[in-house]
Every structure is written in structure tokens, then in C-alpha cells.
Amino acid sequence: MIDIEAVMADFAVRQAQRQTQVVEEIQQLKSVILPRLQEAGIARVEIRFDGCGDSGAVEECACLDAAGGAIACPDVTLQEGEAHTADGAGSEQLPSLGQALEQLTYLALERHHPGWEINHGACGELVIDVAEATFVLDCSLRFTATDDHSTEL
User: Fold this and answer.
1) % of the chain exceeding 70 in pLDDT
2) Cα-Cα end-to-end distance for the chain
3) Cα–Cα distance measured from residue 56 to residue 140, given in angstroms and rounded to the nearest whole number
4) Do 59 and 50 meet the contact criterion of CB atoms below 8 Å apart?
5) How many Cα atoms sit within 13 Å of 145 on the Cβ side?
6) Does residue 89 carry a pLDDT above 90?
7) Burial class of residue 118, CB neighbours in 10 A (0-12, 13-18, 19+)
8) Of 29, 68, 47, which is closest to residue 123 (Cα–Cα)?
9) For 74, which DSSP code?
């Protein structure tokens, strides 16, 4: 017979460990990404995502200069020491800056809005202000609501 209390306790421990790992990976990526954006003259990054029906994706990553003009995301690869958690899977291939930005978005969603892609899903963007060194996740969660009434006649 399965001891459901032991299973749930084990699950809670693994969830807490995963949350700690996600927070560490987010901090690592933030510290790696900012200098690369500064070097490229990028003032702002807007990473848009959308999801529903059990799937979701980063749909666009826009890099902007100080005047708000679009700049191509630099095709640079993270260095060996920078990439140990940024690649997410311990792969041999080092991630590009674009991949690191995408991974940061998915980790932020996992940390702050788990299940964002389920049912009606969610959409939004992660905005990075390079000069201010701020990372803001804006997420609009979708849901169906009802307004029920019962009236005796």
C-alpha cells in the first residue's frame, strides 16, 4: 500500500529544492545577461510570451536602443563558467544570449506563475531595463468566470 503522506512529503521537499534551484538559475542568468546587453548598446529588452491549452512559448524577443529603435540580439555565446546553469540541461553546447534570455523568461514564469500555459493560459512580457538593471515580469492570466444568480419566483 502507498503511504500518501510520505509521497506528499517527498513531493514537497522536491518542489522546495526545485524552487531554490530556479531562484539560483535566475540570479545566475541575470548576472550574465546584463553585461552582454550593455556591451551591445541595448537599453531595453521586451520578451513576449503566450500560452494556453497546455502549451506556451516565448514568441518574440525585441532588443531596443536608448531611442527605442530595434537592434538585433547579438549572436554571442556565453562563456564556459557562465553557462553551467544557463543551458538548463548540462549540454555540451554553450547557449547564446538569445537562448539565455528565453531560458530566463521560462524560469521566471515557472517561479512566479507555474502553470501559466494550462487551460486558458496567460500572456505577457518580461521587460529588462538595462540601465536600471531591472527585470519586470508582466503576466496576464486568463480564466473563465461565471456570475451565477438564483431567484425564487
Assistant:
1) 91
2) 53
3) 13
4) yes
5) 3
6) no
7) middle
8) 47
9) P
Phi/psi for 117 (5° steps) reads -95, 0
Q: Rounded to whole angstroms, how far apart are CA atoms 59 and 123?
A: 10
- Name the nearest CA neighbour of 101 among 79, 122, 128: 128
Distances (CA, A) of 47 to 50, 78, 114, 140: 10, 19, 18, 14
Burial (0-12, 13-18, 19+ Cβ within 10 Å), 53:
exposed
Q: CA separation (Å) from 144 to 55, 120, 121, 139?
A: 18, 8, 11, 17
Residue 71's nearest CA partner among 48, 101, 41 is: 41
Q: Summarize the confidence of residues 8-32 as an average pLDDT.
A: 95
Instruction: Tell me the pLDDT tens digit for each residue of 27-69.
Output: 999 999 999 999 999 999 999 999 999 999 999 999 999 999 9
H helix count then E strand count, the chain: 2, 5
Label residue 134 exposed, middle or buried (CB < 10 Å: 0-12, 13-18, 19+): exposed
Backbone φ, ψ for residue 60 (5° rounding): -155, 145
The SS3 call for residue 72 is: coil
